[in-house]
């Protein structure tokens, strides 16, 4: 009887530690996941906000572990947490595109990483998708020369913007359609050292505004500027005529996990999310020990129908190219 009693107490102690371990894991994942709702410029919070997919995966594994260990009383809170993660994540896995629609405009964005991206591969991606407009950030004079030598000088008839030597601040917009530059002295551009040219593209008689985006990275000491640049993009969106079709294209240095980015994207179509591509990862593609885990490059649009979207990795840059095909409003 005594041995049985001791065994029972030992089993009880082991059981309680399992419950505590599951509870601690749930709290940790919950705290990291909840960071997505805090509009903060504290760099640790900004970094944690990119971990949403890992939280979802962790919660799913925790649910499996809870079932295997038969910790039934812990099953309810873990299931609730998984349900919340699914509510956040699953919409991005279901396409809402119009694949049968005629493509009228294809827009691409590439961060050339101080002009080091492989120009031939960029040109190949442009031709493969019959790109009409490309936004190229971190473009240098040498990168422009390489792109033109690779054939983009013959592919595009319009160029707007500037290169910057040995800098990440140069940005250019190339177009196969006639464009009218409308950059001006827009207050949205005062919050980033990078150029963010703006054009109106004449797509066979239909105007589509394209705004290049290059938000500062949320590095230590720069998170206030990062937040201000995103807030300014939201202000830019609100200033546009409600009937005007437009695309915001470029390196936002922010993901859906950041409240600041979701504020910009509110009411707009994020092409890759609309395409149901799930966990899209555009950074860091090459040049880092860590694998790509977050989408920093986006194509946000209004009054355009997303036909399809995707991304392409090229050598020389740690950002993937992103592209989207659109149908004009009828």
TrEMBL record:
SUPFAM superfamilies the record matches: DNase I-like (SSF56219)
Keyword annotations: Endonuclease, Hydrolase, Membrane, Nuclease, Transmembrane, Transmembrane helix
Stretches that traverse the bilayer: 20-38, 44-65, 72-94
Residues in Endonuclease/exonuclease/phosphatase domain copies: 108-319
Keyword NAD (UniProt): no
MF (Gene Ontology): endonuclease activity
Protein's recorded name: Endonuclease/exonuclease/phosphatase family protein
Organism of provenance: Intrasporangium calvum
């Amino acid at each position: 009887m005594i041995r049985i009693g001791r065994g029972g107490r030992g089993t009880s102690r082991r059981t309680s530690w399992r419950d505590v371990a599951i509870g601690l894991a749930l709290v940790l994942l919950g705290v990291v996941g909840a960071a997505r709702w805090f509009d903060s410029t504290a760099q640790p919070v900004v970094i944690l906000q990119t971990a949403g997919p890992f939280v979802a995966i962790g919660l799913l594994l925790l649910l499996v572990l809870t079932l295997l260990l038969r910790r039934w009383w812990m099953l309810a809170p873990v299931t609730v947490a998984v349900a919340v993660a699914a509510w956040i994540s699953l919409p991005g896995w279901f396409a809402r595109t119009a694949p049968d629609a005629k493509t009228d405009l294809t827009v691409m964005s590439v961060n050339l990483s101080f002009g080091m991206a492989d120009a031939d591969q960029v040109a190949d991606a442009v031709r493969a998708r019959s790109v009409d407009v490309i936004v190229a950030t971190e473009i240098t004079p040498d990168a422009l020369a390489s792109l033109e030598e690779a054939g983009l000088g013959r592919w595009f008839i319009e160029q707007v913007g500037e290169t910057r030597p040995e800098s990440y601040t140069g940005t250019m917009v190339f177009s196969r359609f006639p464009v009218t530059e409308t950059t001006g002295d827009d207050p949205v551009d005062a919050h980033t050292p990078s150029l963010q040219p703006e054009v109106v593209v004449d797509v066979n008689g239909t105007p589509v505004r394209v705004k290049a985006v290059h938000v500062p990275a949320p590095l230590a000491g720069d998170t206030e500027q990062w937040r201000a640049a995103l807030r300014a993009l939201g202000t830019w969106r609100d200033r546009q005529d409600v009937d005007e079709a437009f695309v915001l294209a470029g390196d936002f240095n922010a993901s859906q996990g950041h409240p600041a980015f979701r504020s910009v994207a509110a009411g707009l179509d994020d092409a890759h999310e609309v395409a149901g591509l799930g966990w899209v990862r555009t950074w860091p593609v090459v040049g880092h020990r860590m694998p790509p885990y977050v989408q920093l490059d986006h194509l946000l649009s209004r009054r355009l129908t997303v036909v399809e979207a995707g991304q392409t990795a090229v050598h020389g840059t740690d950002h993937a190219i992103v592209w989207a095909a659109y149908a004009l409003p009828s």
